[in-house]
Amino acid sequence: MSYTDEIEKRKTFAIISHPDAGKTTLTEKFLLFAGAIQSAGAVKSNKIKKSTISDFMEIERQRGISVASAVMSFEYHDKKINLLDTPGHKDFAEDTYRTLTAVDSVILVVDSVKGVEEQTEKLMNVCRMRQTPVIIFVNKLDREGGSPFDLLDELEKKLNIKVSPLSWPINRGAGFKGVYNLHDRNLYLMKPQQKVSDETIVRLEDLKSSRLDEFVGKDNATQLREDVALLDGVYDPYSQKNYLAGELAPVFFGSALNNFGVKELLDTFIEISPSPGPMAADLRIVQPEEETFSGFVFKIHANLDPRHRDRIAFFRVCSGKFERNKFYKHVRLGTNVRFTNPASFLGQKKDVIDEAFPGDVIGLYDRDYFKIGDTLTEGENIVYQGIPSFSPEVFKELVHNSMKAKQLEKGIKQLTDEGVAQLFSLMYGRRKIVGTVGLLQFDVIQYRLKHEYGAECHFEPLNFYKACWLSTTNQTQLDAFINFKADRIGHDKDDNLVFFAESEWMLNYYIKQYPDISFHFTSEFKVVPK
Ligand code: G4P
Fold first, then answer.
1. pLDDT, tens digit (0-9, with 9 covering 90-100), for 428-487
2. Measured in angstroms, how far is the CA atom of residue 181 from the centroid of ligand 1?
3. Structural domain includes residue 295
4. Would residue 218 count as lying in a domain?
């Protein structure tokens, strides 16, 4: 197979959703359709079910699952699908954002009863930042809820994107019969929970056919014909160009649990979704067809065995061919590295691979030399652009027993390199501040520092509202502000200046009072590391 065929063959994507919308169920159905797993229940939900935040066993279980299912690669209709898993818990949202830097498209699952939820909006915003093409799957149509027309309106308004339905539900709730495929203009009818195979699907290519009435009942058939006529008038025809530009989201309806609408989604997905495309590095855009190899680390996972502190770095190939045992340049460190056991993932199995192509995600065993965002090349000094760090929402001071200061120092550095949390230090007293998006990470950090690094610590709450990165063209004004707020000024891990605001009101006040200072809520303005 030619190199361009290898690229063309790949579809690298993530399924994302607000917790409980049905991401795990849909993932499992995809794997079943593709024959990558044989029975339901094989994909473990990676969400932390209990709300109690001190359940360490649950955290460990979660970590085990996320390693095993971080990437699921399988073949479907001659395509190689790389499905990247994302954490289910909202406290791990940053991990999801980082995974989105490594995909070419996403499927966003929305619960038809709950509609657009908080995390759905945030995820959509991240997709928009990178113009990632999004397909929306509206799930749980087997439950009673509002009209699909209202749902489309809500998606358009709250997610701020044009939508184009490509499948349409026939009734819903207890009377839900299946979906009409607007893209291929045909209908698949299935019984709930039916094992999926092409023979068991009833095909109906013409909506006028009286067989439709026979299969779904007269009322449903009439309603479907009316809905489809209305849709044609209200929504612009689907545009592949707008979808690929991230400006239009095709929408599918269905019920992942009952297998309704899933095959339509998967078949259309492999037809319309993009193959690996260009990726933005600091100095230039890199095309996948370029012959020299490059790629970047988007996720690091500590090995589960605490006695061996090796880790797996998840690496996305962006251009050229990756080869086992070949030396590549680690751009940040300026050294050459090679990998003897690079792993690919098939279902839950890991295999050593000899080569990988753009779009592939490989696992590189690593002893401390990778940080998230690290780039490997064949010599060129480029750095891939990631998702910026967001201002954390919860802050605590890390307090430790000074006997084990060295271990703690090393541990907290490695955990923050993995992206578990952000680490800051206050200008006065060099006090260590840990910032996260949720409370759960504090338990993870405390637990892992103790078990993997032998360092005990505890956290003291802080009344910080937000961390803002500061920049200015007026050094005198910035110096005055630093003097004034000295006890709330610190630095991030890369020594960038940070201000910890006490409240939203005060922050807005300072923004007005110090017009020459820019208060950034993400680290995206940052110069990438040397
Ligand atoms: P998540 O990964 O997005 O968090 O969601 P997940 O797939 O785990 O689904 C959340 C719950 O919604 C599960 O029920 C799942 O069975 C249910 N579900 C998924 N798809 C559908 C659907 O199409 N219709 C209906 N009615 N329910 C659906 P649970 O009781 O929380 O978990 P479980 O005990 O069934 O695993």
1. 887 899 998 778 788 888 888 888 888 888 899 998 999 999 999 999 999 999 999 999
2. 24
3. yes
4. no
Mutate to test the pocket of ligand 1, among 139, 257, 259 (most ligand atoms within 8 A of CB): 257
Distance CA 392, CA 438 (A): 8
Q: How many domains does the chain have?
A: 3
Q: Tell whether 246 and 326 lie within a shared domain.
A: no
Residue nearest to atom 19 of ligand 1 (CA): 22
- Nearest residue (by CA) to ligand 1, atom 17, is 22
Nearest-angstrom CA–CA distance, 273 and 78: 14
Looking at the structure, tell me whether residues 297 and 267 fall in a common domain.
no
Nearest-CA residue for atom 4 of ligand 1: 20
Q: What is the pTM of this model?
A: 0.85
Domain that holds residue 373: 279-377
* Angle of the 262-272 helix axis to the 23-33 helix axis, nearest 10: 80
119 lines ligand 1 (CB under 6 A): no
Angle between helix axes 56-68 and 440-453 (nearest 10 degrees) is 80
CATH code: domain of residue 289: 3.40.50.300
Ramachandran region of residue 160, left (φ > 0), alpha (ψ -120 to 50) or beta?
Answer: left
> Within this chain, do residues 100 and 23 fall inside the same structural domain, yes or no?
yes
Distance 42 CA to ligand 1 centre (A): 14
Q: Whose CA is nearest to atom 9 of ligand 1?
A: 22
The residue out of 249, 272, 295 marking a domain boundary is: 272
Q: Is there an atom of ligand 1 within 6 Å of 140 CB?
A: yes
